[in-house]
């Protein structure tokens, strides 16, 4: 069972939810964690249990980052909107930097999320 973090910028939340519905069976085999708003939307769309953290701008990104540093997260699926400015951009960059630094599987869009989920046991 992998520990999977789910995050999506506002304009990507619908896309992440649709992706989660498509992969509901496989996701049900894993332990899901998510920032508050994203996680609530994924739970509503899929019916899967998701441990909710704070909303991203209120510290949820940092909570996921701490989980990565502590070895408590195996995969990060973070649907990023590269066309919209984010008020908490520093936190976003820190989260992706930590995933890279600690060799956590990282997906930033649907095709990479498909590949990462297929690779997870």
TrEMBL record:
Q: Under which main EC class is this enzyme filed?
A: lyase
Catalytic reaction equation(s): dihydroxyacetone phosphate = methylglyoxal + phosphate
Keywords associated with the record: Lyase
Which residue ranges does the record assign to the MGS-like domain?
1-121
Q: Which Gene3D superfamilies match?
A: Methylglyoxal synthase-like domain
In terms of PROSITE patterns, this protein maps to: METHYLGLYOXAL_SYNTH, MGS
Residues bound to substrate are 9, 13, 35-38, 55-56, 88
- SUPFAM superfamilies given in the database record: Methylglyoxal synthase-like
The keyword Nucleotidyltransferase belongs to this UniProt entry's keyword annotation:
no
CDD domains, from UniProt? Answer: MGS (cd01422)
Which HAMAP family has this protein been placed in?
Methylglyoxal_synth
Tell me the protein family, please.
Belongs to the methylglyoxal synthase family.
Protein's recorded name: Methylglyoxal synthase
Source organism per entry reads Devosia neptuniae
């Amino acid at each position: 069972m992998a520990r999977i973090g789910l995050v999506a910028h506002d304009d990507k939340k619908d896309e992440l939810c649709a992706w989660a519905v498509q992969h509901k069976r496989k996701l049900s085999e894993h332990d899901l964690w998510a920032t508050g708003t994203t996680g609530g939307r994924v739970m509503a769309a899929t019916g899967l249990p998701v441990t909710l953290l704070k909303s991203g701008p209120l510290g949820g990104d940092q909570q996921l980052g701490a989980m990565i540093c502590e070895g408590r997260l195996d995969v990060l699926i973070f649907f990023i909107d590269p066309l919209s400015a984010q008020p908490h951009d520093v936190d976003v960059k820190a989260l992706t930097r930590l995933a890279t630094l600690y060799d956590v599987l990282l997906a930033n869009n649907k095709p990479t999320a498909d590949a990462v989920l297929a690779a997870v046991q």
